[in-house]
Amino acid sequence: MAVVRDLRVLLGLRDFRRLLAVRLLSQGADGAYQVALATYVVFSPERETSATAIASAMAVLLLPYSLLGPFAGVFLDRWRRRQVLLYGNLLRSVLACGTALLLVAEVPDWLFYASALSVTAVNRFVLAGLSAALPRVVDRDRLVMANSLSPTAGTLAATAGGGLAFAVRLAGLDSDAVTVMLGAALYLSAALASLRMGRELLGPDPELLQPRLTAALAGTVRGLVEGLRHLAERRPATVVLATMTLARFCYGALTVTVLMLCRYAWSETESEGLALLGIAVALSAGGFFAAAVVTPWAVDRLGEFGWLIACMAAAALLAPGLGLPFERVPMLGAAFLLGLTTQAVKITTDTVIQATVDDAFRGRVFALYDVLFNVAFVGAAAVAALMLPPDGRSATLVVTVAVLYAIAAATTAKFRPS
């Protein structure tokens, strides 16, 4: 099979393997850290969780960085990306240790959220750097396959890290601090793994670097304007970013719905709800893996924009068809299928941006991408907080999501490049 052959070629590339190892360790740590946060906010026995509380937590963790995110891209296009991966993961390891200490000390919530926000902010540099660096270790002909394997493998690693954290909790080690320390150890491992790559390997090219901090700060606003202008001149990248944003919004609204269903409608205890959430996350990860296998084949036959339209149209049908009963089995089936379509959109979006955006601007564009990714999720959580009842059953929300998926499909079809 062509897919298997391309996979063998990719894994035979030494630098690709090394970049992939950093991604796997880094996102595995993300999974463990995020599960610790989720269990603390949603499944702590002493807390009466609501959709509003979940939305507030997401806003605190994601929105402040999202508002500043475009400026981070200007730095990302000036700093050596290998160094971003090294120092970013080292810093996250230290900050995660601080979060664990705060959990043990039972400090006020605002201090805990401030610590978690700092880890999340650095995470955005690392993920954007990984995406921007990928074209430096593979050729254009295999970029779709690389985008299928690398981010999807990272998502699976995050799921594995989260699964390990779930296992720790369900095994009786009822301590969020333990899972946070597990994340800290994995962040440290990712930093050490990045040392296997040369300082200059991941770009940007040396002549584009501005190592002085004052020079980088002075060019921040100008660089942001240049990055936005560069993106506006590339219609394919603009269209796929719009599609991805709508898809992410829909997925975020359904994620909050499943969280509330697991916490209240489908379980009688916190441990039972946590186990159900673990199953939903695992099934969604299975959908991500399926997307990695199917997307290169589908893009080859339908084209990048044809595949985006097919995914959004399928999601528009699947969301109400499986979600409206609000029963475990159909909804968990939706977790798999919508995980597939959502990840397929991300893989395709990554590929189009990497292929159409110049390397000198890629960091800024991926930072903007990351901002849209986060703002869409936070916005979805806010909308869900307004629409969801305490048990998570809202037909209005599910139908709204289906309509948005249909709008995304129709808009992508209308504005697809000729």
Note down, in words, how this protein is organized.
It is a single chain. The chain has helices spanning 2-11, 14-42, 51-76, 81-105, 109-133, 143-170, 176-194, 213-218, 220-232, 235-265, 270-302, 304-323, 328-356, 359-387, 395-415. It is an all-alpha fold and 418 residues long. The chain has a single domain (6-415), classed as Growth Hormone, Chain: A (Up-down Bundle). Helix 9 packs across helix 14. The protein is globular and about 60 Å long. It starts with a helix and ends with a helix. The mean pLDDT is 82.
Q: Helices and strands in order, then pairings?
A:
Blueprint: H1 2-11, H2 14-42, H3 51-76, H4 81-105, H5 109-133, H6 143-170, H7 176-194, H8 213-218, H9 220-232, H10 235-265, H11 270-302, H12 304-323, H13 328-356, H14 359-387, H15 395-415
Helix pairs in contact: 2-5, 2-6, 2-7, 3-5, 3-9, 3-14, 4-5, 4-7, 5-14, 6-7, 6-11, 6-13, 9-14, 10-11, 10-13, 10-14, 10-15, 11-12, 11-13, 12-13, 12-15
In CATH, the topology is named Growth Hormone, Chain: A
Summarize the helix and strand pattern as letters. HHHHHHHHHHHHHHH
- The CATH homologous superfamily is named MFS general substrate transporter like domains
Strand residue percentage: under 5%
Q: Characterize the overall form.
A: globular
Mean pLDDT: 82
Query: How far apart are the first and last residues' alpha carbons, in Å?
Result: 30 Å
Largest sheet: none
Helical amount: over 70%
- DSSP E strands, number: 0
> What value does the Rg take, in angstroms?
20 Å
- What is the CATH top level name? Mainly Alpha
Number of domains: 1
Structural class assignment? mainly alpha
Oligomeric state of the chains in view: single chain
> What are the low-pLDDT stretches, counting only 5+ consecutive residues below 50?
none
